[in-house]
Amino acid sequence: MAQTGSTNADLLARLASGEHIGEGHWLVADRQTAGRGRLGRGWNDGQGNFMGSTVVHLTIGDPSPATLALVAGVALAKTVAALAPHVGAQLKWPNDLLVGGAKCAGILMERTGNSVVIGIGVNLTAAPELPDRPTATLAGKGAAIDRDHFAGALGIAMIDALWTWRQEGVASIVRAWIPQAHPIGTPLRVSEQGIDGTFDGLAEDGALRLRREGGETMLVHAGDVELRRPVVEGN
Fold first, then answer.
1. Among 24, 43, 23, which Cα is nearest to 33's?
2. At 153, is the secondary structure helix, strand, or coil?
3. Neighbours of 142 (CB within 10 A)
4. pLDDT at 127
5. What are the angstrom distances between the C-alpha of 152 and each of 90, 109, 158?
6. Residue 31: phi, psi to the nearest 5?
7. 82-97 pLDDT, tens per residue?
8. From CA 76, how far away is CA 109, in angstroms rounded?
9. Is the pLDDT of residue 192 over 70?
10. When you count CB atoms within 10 A of the terminal residue's CB, does the N or C end of the chain come out lower?
11. CA pair distance 65, 2, nearest whole angstrom
């Protein structure tokens, strides 16, 4: 579609009306005027970027729905690595993709009944300004990627990651996620609690392992996590 407020909101409304939307279907917009990130942040992407949403219908025996963020992350990271291998994109728990430490893509999940709408926004050509974190584009790193080509590749990667999640479980997704993430030892902060530590991988259930200064490791099951940036002397 040419323009919409939010592809996530559109799919949620269609599901609420009783429409069946099959897995593997994506709603992709050229422009998005009321996009949302986590915690209600605005995320209004511009022409040339990827803005799309898809649906996963939960069935008996599926892993925890919360771990679908990792599924989407694996699909997203693998797509970017295939189309722009030189940019060195890295996943940040639970739902961001970073380029040079700056946010290049984000994932938003919203549940209605037994369906989860997964929205993904990728800064292919333009980056919205955020008040609390730097942003980056793939084009700014020399990767010129056609939006429709990106959409097709992401759709295939998502089907593959979703199959792994269902057939092999969360632990298999975790093993695929960790090599795509920033390195073990990366300084992190859990924003809401103001807790600092370093990245120590993920637990088998997908929780973040945060190593504290004293050496103990705590598990973070939900929260807004950001890179802890070094203090520059004189600032």
1. 43
2. helix
3. 9
4. 87
5. 21, 20, 10
6. -135, 150
7. 999 999 999 999 999 9
8. 14
9. yes
10. C
11. 30
DSSP code, position 87: G
Residue 76: its H or E element: helix 68-83
Q: Is 11 helix (H, G, I), strand (E, B) or coil?
A: helix
Torsion sign over Cα 6, 42, 95, 76 = positive
Distance between start and end Cα atoms, the chain: 46
Residue 74 burial by Cβ neighbours in a 10 Å radius (0-12, 13-18, 19+): buried
CA–CA dist 159, 161 (Å, integer): 6
DSSP code, position 36: B
The strands making up 208-211's β-sheet, listed across from edge to edge, are 217-220, 208-211, 195-202, 187-190, 225-227
Confidence label for 129 from pLDDT (cuts 50, 70 and 90): confident
Report the half-sphere exposure of 152 (CA within 13 A, side-chain side).
5
Calpha distance 74→211 (Å, rounded): 23
Whole-prediction pTM: 0.90
Q: Are 20 and 46 in contact (CB under 8 A)?
A: no
Asked if the model's pLDDT at residue 2 lies above 70, the reply is no
CB 161 within 8 Å of CB 75: yes
29: its two tokens: 């917009």
C-alpha 159: how far from chain center = 16
DSSP letters of 171-196?
HHHHHHHGGGBSPTT-EEEETTTTEE
- Residue given tokens 């429709």 in the structure block: 148
Question: Tokens for 127?
Answer: 């980056």
Residue 232: predicted pLDDT: 35
Q: How far apart are CA 74 and CA 61, in angstroms?
A: 21
